[in-house]
Amino acid sequence: MGAYDFASYRVFTDLKKGLYGNVSTVVRIPSDTPETQLQQIAADLAQPATTFLWKEEDTWKVRWFAPDSEIKLCGHGAMAAVAYAMDFLQADNFEMHYSSGKISGGKHNQTSCFTDLKPIPTEHALEIPEYLPKALGIPVEAFYKTANKHLVVANSETEVRNMRPNFELLRSSDIFGYVVTAPGSEMDFVSRTLVPHVQQLEDHATGSSHAILMPYWSQVLNRSHLTAQQLSKRGGAFQGKLIGSSVRLIGQFQKINQGKLCSL
Predict the structure, then answer these.
(1) Which listed residue, 83, 209, 219, 246, has the most CB atoms within 10 A of its CB?
(2) Under a CB-based contact definition with an 8 Å cutoff, are residues 14 and 231 in contact?
(3) Exposure class string for 79-90: b at 16+ Cβ within 10 A, else e
(4) Pairing assessment for the beta strands 178-183 and 150-153 based on DSSP bridges
């Protein structure tokens, strides 16, 4: 029986403001590993996302798993992988390949790193379904389809913060997830990410959602450099800017543990 090196990170944090971000355990594996084994490790670790990294020749590969299923794109897991590369690979810049492309990232300063993600544009406005304001308990100003989660625009930060979703009602639709957003009072915008069909229900600090939000609010506010807060129970802090055809997300991180994980 071998052992895998691992380290767990909080990312998209601002501890001075009591924002504890999202957690991912990064596990370095020697090679691509059967999905059933990766899923079992993720279930045992019970983190919002477990990030598996391995190297094939000169290319780093990555997969992400929640305790109950694989995640096709995990922004906070990618951020944790960059933090791991800074700490353990002495890499100021890092590139990883996943099933749909590649993500680049690197060191921003001693306590922050960044990832460059493909922007996820809003495809078109949808008619607001009858169930949605009832399920969210707030008025809905606009509703957009994207290639990832659906975008819901609300009136105010207060409404988003105080929202008490009815997840049973949200599950009456086959829509995977909802990013609920509004203008912020101290930040440019705020959001919450709801995923009613998976175990977690609401994500803590979601990089992939901000690949939707940064282009949307950049167009609305006519600015390329934005600040944001995710209003989950843990809270998340984001800086973002559009660089060419990429969305750069910048966030603070902290390593919270490290060790050896026995293989199955």
Answers:
(1) 209
(2) no
(3) bbbbbbbbeeee
(4) parallel
pLDDT of 1 higher than 60: no
0.90 cut: is pTM over it?
A: yes
Over residues 59-104, the pLDDT tens digits come to 999 999 999 999 999 999 999 999 999 999 999 999 999 998 999 9
User: What would the DSSP string read from start to end of 228-239?
Assistant: EEE-SSS-EEEE
Tell me the domains of the chain and their CATH numbers. 3-118+249-262 (3.10.310.10), 124-241 (3.10.310.10)
Q: Which helix (H) or strand (E) holds 1?
A: none
Q: Which of 39, 45, 34 is nearest to 6 (CA)?
A: 45
Measured CA to CA in angstroms, residue 228 lies from 17, 29, 94, 205, 241 at distances of 13, 34, 24, 11, 11
